[in-house]
Design a protein that fits this description.
heterodimer, A: mainly alpha, B: mainly alpha, Arc Repressor Mutant, subunit A, 5 domains, 3-stranded antiparallel beta sheet, globular
Amino acid sequence: MSGKGKGGGSSNTMRNVANALGIARYDMAKMMSQQTIEPPELYPKVQRNPVPLEMTTDLLYVSRLKVELDQRMRDSQFFIEAEKEDEIKRYLDKYSVIKREKLDINMSHMPSELVWRRTTSNASSRSGAKRRKLANDDSIIKEKLNKLEEKEGKNNEDDDDEKPEKDNDSESEKSAAEEEENPLSDDDNQEEDNDYISNYFDNGEGYGDGGSDDNMDGDDF
Amino acid sequence: MGGGKYETQMCVIIIEDIFGKIVAKVMETILKESCQLATLVYKLKGQMSSSLIKKSLSTLINFGFITFSLDTNHRVTYVADSDQIQCIISAPRACLIAKTLYGPSAESICIELISQGRLTVSETIRRIQAVDETAVLSDIRHSFEELVGAHFLIRVPSVESEAYGCPQFNNGSDPFEMPNAIMSKHENGRDASTSDGNSRKRKANSSPDDADAGQYWRMNWVRFNGYLRDELIIDYLIGGGSTATMTQLNVKKEAEDMEPQGDRTQYITQNVAHLMFKINETRGKPLSLDSITASITDLQRLVREYSLDLSKPDIELACQILVDESDGIVRKLGESNGGLYTVDIRHAIRQICRHHCESLIREQFEGRAIRVMRLLEGRHYLDEEQVEKLSMMSGKEAREMLYALVEEGYVFNKPVGRSNDFQPARTFYLYYVDLPRTIRGLVEYNCKLVRNLIIRQRHERTENKTLLDKDANVQPIIENIRQSELDDESKAAQIAEVEEMYLPGPDRAQLNRYRKAQATLLAAQDQSIRVLLIFKLFLESGET
């Protein structure tokens, strides 16, 4: 760092450096005068032009298939778009919208927190009575018991943990209770989500304190 | 993980291209830092609703771009897997491999699996039959078995239990074991659709009716990458597609006098090289860097198995040629079993990387720069004067060349001071080549290249959107005319008329130009992802 400062500082050291590097004085002067601050060219000249890509049958096949695959992906259920709401409605909208299948993924392979309720609520509304009957099944009860057990375990373990966690748990317990009573609707869930976030993060400071305590402990060791 | 700035950007662009902006945003956030759902929701607060985030996450997990695990606090942490994302670019290559090895139905299996992320065997069969009604069940099933047998497809581990809201996977079972009940499930499926009692359940959730429900399969990209690597090494050893066409041209020219000679040697070496790799095809780890060993007797056995037209002297000749011409990649180990040969994978990867490096230098500078580069590689640390003398260039030239090489990151220098203050007059500047360091730079450069290619391609697509839409409208009309019962002449006249009306001359020229540009852009993507693969393998191999 100091070397840099020196070099830029006085012309004497600069000359020394230039001498040591074997750069003649006029070369140095020329270089200094050429210094301009410009972005480099977008397409700098190359000594030899790159060899053009030879389109073999393999490459043609690959590029054609890629176009098809990409288009398929873009038209598939996995291409997720936000629903446009407050835009001017146009006549052509009806025709420009691509009809996609509803996103349908086997959620048993995913963490349960990822289940977005919209689809489940749809499914339940479709076969309302049957769902209701199913809900009385013992599998659901078992699940609930498991959940409660889990929470109990969590509470015991994380007793000395940060408060937001606790808030959270009680919150989700409450929501679980709500769920028992009435089958979920979209609005409820959304509100819940929001509550969850604000609760969790408003107490961010407390979280940080906990972390620093840990650090102190570490120092003691 | 551990990718640079441009690698992250490339991954985001790839995702945006196929899943849209929302999923790309979620991907970007996780690529930057692995986090929990709550953190993710907080980071994206105000940009999208939490249900969209959840949907995006599920999609990304479904395709294997994001993995999850429980942390010590029993919360689920999501981690991005950028290598998986890059496989999207080499997806068509994978289809091509499947098609050349196992035929068209293997290709359609791959296409379905790529575009759906993961599927059960029966879902795959159903989807293929929905697209192509002529597809035969046993055919598809056979191809599926073949692909699994060669480890090109892998089973997604099944869910064993659930802990803290996170499914626990059963990693113990054999990932290449085909389910037995494919056929019975298919009958089950039919039963369910006919009998009324089950149908409502089916509507709510169609998969539980299959016998193999929940047994998902996905592409085994590691295996495909291993195959691609072997292909690249063979290309390097005997000259790939380009030289093949060249020999064909040569044969055409000299058809009369010495026709089969050049072709025959090429044929022999090509086949023997392929067979050498074939021997170790289904080894435990497809990307393992252990050398491949093959003996003449092994090769003879394979020749008989594939009924190729090769005799023992032919094989010996080919092995000799490979040993002589491959810069130490193929070596002879001993005389047992008629002659034992080995292919040094590490060395091969290194040579390919060097080759790419040199061709880049040749492009940016001139031939003499390669002379300097090779000199430094051979002698390791040299100062300016030594370079000047040994490369037989004038002082000024050598200096300028070295500075330019340092600037572009092909050569590095190391100051060695005679005194503590590193005064320039009393300091040596030693130049040296550090290939892994150069390659790390090139990996970033390559990622930037792929990203730019995708952006350019998307730009072209939006620019020509109206034309493409028009073309999409015209095609069915023309198809109708073709199928109508007119004689050929009037058909042609009508088609020309329709084309002229919808797509006048300049538009059509523009469309053709666009198609050509797009093909080139996509082919370039394919090529550069292959180079990227070999660069990454080199860095992983830890060669210096």
